[in-house]
Amino acid sequence: xxxxxxxxxxxxxxxxxxxxxxxxxxxxxxxxxxxxxxxxxxxxxxxxxxxxxxxxxxxxxxxxxxxxxxxxxxxxxxxxxxxxxxxxxxxxxxxxxxxxxxxxxxxxxxxxxxxxxxxxxxxxxxxxxxxxxxxxxxxxxxxxxxxxxxxxxxxxxxxxxxxxxxxxxxxxxxxxxxxxxxxxxxxxxxxxxxxxxxxxxxxxxxxxxxxxxxxxxxxxxxxxxxxxxxxxxxxxxxxxxxxxxxxxxxxxxxxxxxxxxxxxxxxxxxxxxxxxxxxxxxxxxxxxxxxxxxxxxxxxxxxxxxxxxxxxxxxxxxxxxxxxxxxxxxxxxxxxxxxxxxxxxxxxxxxxxxxxxxxxxxxxxxxxxxxxxxxxxxxxxxxxxxxxxxxxxxxxxxxxxxxxxxxxxxxxxxxxxxxxxxxxxxxxxxxxxxxxxxxxxxxxxxxxxxxxxxxxxxxxxxxxxxxxxxxxxxxxxxxxxxxxxxxxxxxxxxxxxxxxxxxxxxxxxxxxxxxxxxxxxxxxxxxxxxxxxxxxxxxxxxxxxxxxxxxxxxxxxxxxxxxxxxxxxxxxxxxxxxxxxxxxxxxxxxxxxxxxxxxxxxxxxxxxxxxxxxxxxxxxxxxxxxxxxxxxxxxxxxxxxxxxxxxxxxxxxxxxxxxxxxxxxxxxxxxxxxxxxxxxxxxxxxxxxxxxxxxxxxxxxxxxxxxxxxxxxxxxxxxxxxxxxxxxxxxxxxxxxxxxxxxxxxxxxxxxxxxxxxxxxxxxxxxxxxxxxxxxxxxxxxxxx
Length: 785
Hints:
Radius of gyration: 43 Å
Largest sheet: 6 strands, antiparallel, barrel
Number of strands: 12
GO molecular function, one term: GTPase activator activity
Number of domains: 4
Protein name: Rho GTPase-activating protein 10
Main location: membrane
GO biological process, one term: negative regulation of apoptotic process
Structural class: alpha+beta
CATH architecture of the largest domain: Up-down Bundle
CATH class of the largest domain: Mainly Alpha
Keywords: Cell membrane, Coiled coil, Cytoplasm, Endosome, GTPase activation, Membrane, SH3 domain
Strand content: 5-15%
């Protein structure tokens, strides 16, 4: 049972039970007071802990932002650029989240702590003051009654009457005070139900708003997260291919290191100990130097270097060789020594010590000594041994037979070209196909004797066995250059030009093969062999450097990109001549670096206003942010080589839609909070974050920046270069794909033709009609026709 009500009539009786009920009410208020006091203390501790957590999160974000991945080689792939930028994206996400957390922590003070302190001070404090008055008046009233009752009846009547009046007045004052106190006690018991709970509701509304903001941030981040997973999977796939190549090269060098020395500008180079003579009584010392010699100029360079002291590099010495003399063991107490005399230092000779007798003989031979028994250090590049496979009529027959069989029997087989056949069966099939007598007898299309994986492995083995790769050693470096840099369109144009520089037979066979690979990629939903996966498989098969080095293996990922470009643009590259008006690609005319392809449009991201934490807004159905589509079918991931929408995933892992990647141009840090005075209007914007004033299309390819739209090397000027008043009711063609994120926008692919294109009142946007639907188009995504 709860507290018993205090009846006003009991104030006049002031019975013991009335006093018990008053004490029960006072005890309850005291308990409430202590509870609120503890709650305020806990709330302040919560704010302090929140600030500590926020500081730790910010420090973590700062550490992420400051770290940068280094890459091996002279360029990164688009995937690697996105991975490199991911730490900054993570940092910006945390920074944004912590901004919201700090606002929530501030709101706790305003919405919870201060109202509770006010209630405790003004309401509970007032009751305490009333209690003091009531207790004091009780003591005074009953003391006066006791004193009055002790008056002698023999006193004068006038004196007794005066005493009676005084007691009666005091009793009336006491009753009034008692009535007010009882009223106050009951009022505060009822008031605390809303005066205390209302701040709690505001506090929890602030928490809900913070978590909703976190949900919105996570929803915006989800597209980037899916893109990053694709980037990571692509990089992992390339890593696996690169690792196997590196291990193979390492094993070759381990077995025969002499045959895999890198070609060098020096005739000989290596470590030698050089005797340094000192004045008596110090004698002499031997110091290790890295020595380099150019025979044509007779120039000898020595650089002191000591591995054990942390690899400290000393100052080098250069002299010109006059002669070299072998030292016999009876003339010096060390082995493997020889003397060299400098032409520019008459009368001074240096004694040097090699690591072994074999190395001494090699140095003597290079330096013109007497014991020239071994070949020169300056080894020419060892050509690959020619196999029996040739780029002849028989080769074209093998290629066509294998392709027909694959397209007839296994075009939908999962992991086509990635799943390898049994080595012995592959060799047997390839031998039969390359034998004129048995080639025609092999029926690959109808025979069950040969598995599809055996046929695909034989085809790849034939291409690898050619004396020279299909895309030639000569053009290898030229093909790699555009894959490392440039806009997507300039990459395609450069590869287009280079393909037409290939020998006719090479180009013809490449055409047949790439046409087949395009067909394979068109069935990627069944076989999971997307453009990127085919690039991983056929990059090392169609391209390889003449010299095997780790640096060359690091370029494997760019070979994959070249193959992706060929597959995605087969019709253009092989069916049309290259544009003669474009500059010839080459190492000296490499296009400028392009931003990562799978990125959101350059410029600022849609700003998310500051959440409002101290009032509630009911969401109307029309104002609710649209949720991500759950039933969108997974599409394969976009290749990184050109603006084609063809996509690629890792084997067995179909990727999500590639239309939402966020880069530095629009980082989470761009969501600047608004001023407190704008809080109410900001809250309404927050409930409906999409604004037609901010372009929300998410391209699969990086378009020009809305602020300063660049003109790609291979594209005409876009409408971004024309003043708005000049764009009046014309046609336009899309140069970048875009997916609408608002009902007023249009979705389109590259090449889409828009009718009745006009300027829009929205900055950076045009209005146009596509397939009968009219809507907004990002201005820098199209060019006028």
